[in-house]
Structures are given as structure tokens and as C-alpha cells.
Specification:
Helix content: 55-70%
Largest sheet: none
Number of strands: 0
CATH superfamily of the largest domain: DNA ligase, ATP-dependent, N-terminal domain
Structural class: mainly alpha
Number of domains: 2
Shape: globular
CATH topology of the largest domain: DNA ligase i, domain 1
Distance between the termini: 28 Å
């Protein structure tokens, strides 16, 4: 089942795609990922992590960078005026305090986390990650959100947590468009999404990626 796939596999895909300069290779890699690791009965579990900005099943997190920084500081048990806490809070600013990754919150956070998390993966499956992200989005206050983030930090390494933060911020910076992702999934995926605005429905209706979609059947 797709949901039993290790989240580390998805992180490896993301890292490879981010490093690659060739759109053709990115598309080919994503297609191979779908063919190799995803069960046709459950593409959505994985694709919602690739296209987090199109996932309507999960509510908003209520975590822009400034609030997320505060929650991460509390989840890590750091003093608000510690050097790393200030790096997170001042992530937009350049200079010695923030470092070379100023302006990229996820990378600044990854640097801070790297000193506090082990290198080994915690072994989370993508179902585990999706369940925790569901909890995060449904949390009603900052304390609850901080608790979920603390759980994620304890069960991931810095590389995995970097990608989780990017999923939360709904900006993976993979250098591949939604259009390309849809096309590699199914030739009718973009068209169906444009009509329905429902990523889960698209994944379910087009689970047979060799079969062209009959519009009239769906709508």
C-alpha cells in the first residue's frame, strides 16, 4: 500500500528533483516514483504531499513563517533569545545571525534542527506523516500545534523535517510545475482538476493511468 511507504522515500525524491536541473529528468523521476512506489488504489496519499497547495482535504495550518518559528522554538525547548531562536525569528534577514540561507525559512530551520536531530530516519510512513499533518491542521491553538511539531521532530531527522516544513508552508521549490506533475500522473489529470478542484477525486478517478478519462462519466 502507498500509505506504508517510508516518508524517507518521498524525501529522497524531493531532494533529487530539487538538485536536478533538467525538467525532463524531474518528470521522468516522478513518473518512475509513481510506477515503483505507489499503489494505484491510493495515489492521493503520496500526491497530496507533492502538491500540498492543491490539497483541499486538509484544512489550513495557520502557520506562516513567523508563527511556525515560534512553535519550533517552543517545540525544541529553546530560549526565545538564544542564537538559534533568533535565527528562526529573523530568517528573512541576512548577515552572521541568519547565515547564507537567509530568506529561505525551511533551510534556516533545517540548519537549526541539524544540531538537535540525529541523522537516522525515524522510520515514519507517509500515512504517519499525513496523520500528524491532519492533527496539526486541526489543532486549535499554538500549544497543540507545538505539541504536534515536537512529535514530528522526535520522529524525523533534519532532512525529513525540512521537507515537512516545506509541505506545511505549501512551497516545495522542486522546480517542476503542477502542470508537469499532473501530466506525468495522467494525461487528463490537469483538465479534471481544473473542473473539480479536487485532488483526491482526480487521484481516485484516474487511478488507471493507461485509461483516458470520459468526462461525461464523472461530471
Amino acid at each position: 500500500m502507498t500509505e506504508q511507504m517510508k516518508f524517507s522515500v518521498v524525501c529522497s525524491l524531493f531532494s533529487w528533483m530539487q538538485r536536478s536541473k533538467s525538467l525532463g529528468k524531474k518528470r521522468s523521476k516522478f513518473r518512475k516514483f509513481l510506477d515503483t512506489f505507489c499503489n494505484p488504489r491510493d495515489y492521493f496519499t503520496a500526491i497530496r504531499l507533492v502538491l500540498p497547495n492543491l490539497d483541499r482535504e486538509r484544512g489550513t495550518y495557520g502557520l506562516k513563517e513567523s508563527v511556525l518559528a515560534t512553535c519550533l522554538i517552543d517545540a525544541l525547548g529553546m530560549s526565545r533569545d538564544s542564537q538559534d531562536a533568533l535565527r528562526l525569528l529573523n530568517w528573512r534577514k541576512g548577515g552572521a545571525q541568519t547565515g547564507a540561507n537567509a530568506g529561505n525559512f525551511s533551510l534556516v530551520a533545517a540548519e537549526v534542527l541539524q544540531c538537535r536531530q540525529g541523522m537516522a530516519s525515524g522510520g515514519l510512513t507517509i500515512k504517519d506523516v499525513n496523520d500528524l499533518l491532519d492533527r496539526l491542521s486541526s489543532s486549535e491553538n499554538r500549544a497543540e500545534k507545538t505539541s504536534v511539531l515536537s512529535t514530528l521532530i522526535n520522529k524525523t531527522n533534519a532532512q525529513e523535517m525540512k521537507w515537512i516544513i516545506m509541505i506545511i508552508l505549501k512551497d516545495l521549490k522542486l522546480g517542476i510545475s503542477e502542470k508537469s506533475v499532473f501530466h506525468e500522473f495522467h494525461p487528463d489529470a490537469e483538465d479534471l482538476f481544473n473542473v473539480t478542484c479536487d485532488l483526491k477525486l482526480v487521484c481516485e478517478k484516474l487511478r488507471d493511468r493507461t485509461q483516458r478519462h470520459n468526462r461525461q462519466v464523472c461530471y
